[in-house]
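Hi R.,

Here are the chain sequences for the assembly we discussed:
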Amino acid sequence: MATPASRGTIVRWLVVPIVVVPLAWLLFTGLGRDPRNIPSPLVGHPLPVFAAGTLEGTHFVSAELRGRPAVVNVWASWCPPCVDEHPLLLDLAARHIDDLSVVGIVYQDTADGARGFLARYGNGGWPNVVDASGAIAVNLGVTGPPETFFIDADGIVRARHVGPLTRAVIAAELTALGIVP
Amino acid sequence: MRRLALPLAVAALLALGALVLLEAIRPAAPPTAADQALQIAAELRCPDCFGLSVAESQTAAAAAIRQQIVDLIAAGRTPAQVRAYFVARYGEWILLLPSSPLAWWLPPAALLVGAGLLAWWLRRGRSAAPPPDQATPSDDLRGRIRDEVEQLDA
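And here is the predicted structure of the full complex:
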């Protein structure tokens, strides 16, 4: 048991599971991670307050969202994944017109460009806040469109989804908000 | 020319050292609000580009963050409060300089542990080598081998 040869074997068999396996696992999982997908510190906290003009010419105040769950979608007309997810948002807004608010935030875009997008891909009728200075996006910790925030009826951010929405993501997040998707 | 190269290099190094020393001991002027804003921007990660700070980036998001830093400092916030403001929105990810002391101590600690392990492994290899007296047969054994070989030959 205590001969040098058997001790060397034990050390060798310990080094592999204790050092090599966790290191390999760490590096391997790092490969598959999306560097943009960082958990938002806003989750579990109230949605930061914002107010600005909309594409539709009205003035929007984020306090209007209180009272029922809301989906806040950050988008831009120059963003191809925003085109991909747009039909899902139109469908979502149409089906949950009574129990959910939808708000768009136009990110780093011109009002004309954003209006052209809605004319081409469909206007769901929800307000689209124009973030001209980029201050609202910074306030929400946005790294790039599309990003979608799911807010509960008390105004608490329950989830943030980075990248285009999918049916599965919408179903899961609506269920978490207590809405039948 | 060759003979001048070494003295020139030494002189250049000395001059550089003197400059660094002068810069280090020069009394620093109190930072202006613009200096502070630039300093904070240089320590924040640009949210929509890779590997650039907010101070270096030309994107609209970086410009919006720079503007907010200036506004927050003008409103009397300290640099630490400004950093905390952005961490509350983007997470620790926004900081180019990690705030956790672990992030600073872990790499040198890992290096020290690795060097220690290597030293232990090298020393163990030397002491574990078979002692020479065990490897070469003793005179007694030599005699017995000779006797047995002679018996076989006979």
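DSSP finds seven helices and no strands in chain B. The first helix of chain B runs from residue 2 to 25.

Let me know if anything looks off.

Best,
T.
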